[in-house]
Amino acid sequence: MIPTLLIGDHILVNKFCYGIKNPFTGETWIPLGTPERLDVVVFKYPENPSQDFIKRVIGLPGDRIEIRNKKVYINGNLLNVKYAVHMDPNIFPGPNPARDNFGPITVPPHSLFVMGDNRDNSHDSRFWGFVDYTALKGRAFMLYWSWNKEKFSVRWRRIGDIIH
């Protein structure tokens, strides 16, 4: 999620914004809202549910997702995300790796298609599939601490930043 989040950032997560959930199954008991496109969400990593992952919501249920030459299209319309960065000028033709050209694919019900903001270096839905609503933990909303391990210093300017 670099540059939105940096290594050493600590975040606050609203665990109730999408509803009150069964802590064992992830099933929503009392719905309070649904994820919206571009939300930054925390979820159980599909390849190892004991780990939490954080990514940006790109596709919602029913959306048709396609990536052509690093550009994301939702239902045929170009999605411009000001937070997305590309560090590698190379474009891989795909589908292996699926980094720069992917789909089209339709997001199933009760699922999300998520991507990291550092698009050229993100292990996300392009590689391991969709995030089921039951795996959602919440929406990230604020940085409460940021530590630069290499410089052994606090990143004071980041503390209190709202995560967009």
What does this protein look like?
It is a single chain. With 164 residues, this protein is mainly beta. The protein has a single domain (9-158), classed as Ribbon (Umud Fragment, subunit A), CATH 2.10.109.10. It is 2% helix and 38% strand. The chain is built from 1 helix and 13 strands. The protein has one helix at 125-128; strands at residues 9-14, 20-21, 28-30, 40-44, 52-59, 64-68, 71-74, 77-78, 102-106, 111-115, 131-132, 136-148, 153-154. The strands form 3 sheets. Strands 1, 4, 5, 10, 11, 12 and 13 form a 7-stranded antiparallel β-sheet that branches. It has a 4-stranded antiparallel β-sheet with strand order 8-7-6-9, with no helix packed on it. Strand 12 and strand 13 (153-154) form a beta hairpin. The longest helix is centred in the C-terminal third of the chain and has 4 residues, at 125-128. The termini are close together. The mean pLDDT is 94.
Main attributes?
globular; 1 helix; 13 strands; four-stranded antiparallel beta sheet; 2% helix; seven-stranded antiparallel beta sheet; 164 residues
Summarize the structure.
The chain is an all-beta fold and 164 residues long. 2% of the residues lie in helices and 38% in strands. The strands form three sheets. Strands 1, 4, 5, 10, 11, 12 and 13 form a seven-stranded antiparallel beta sheet that branches. The protein has a four-stranded antiparallel beta sheet with strand order 8-7-6-9, with no helix packed on it.
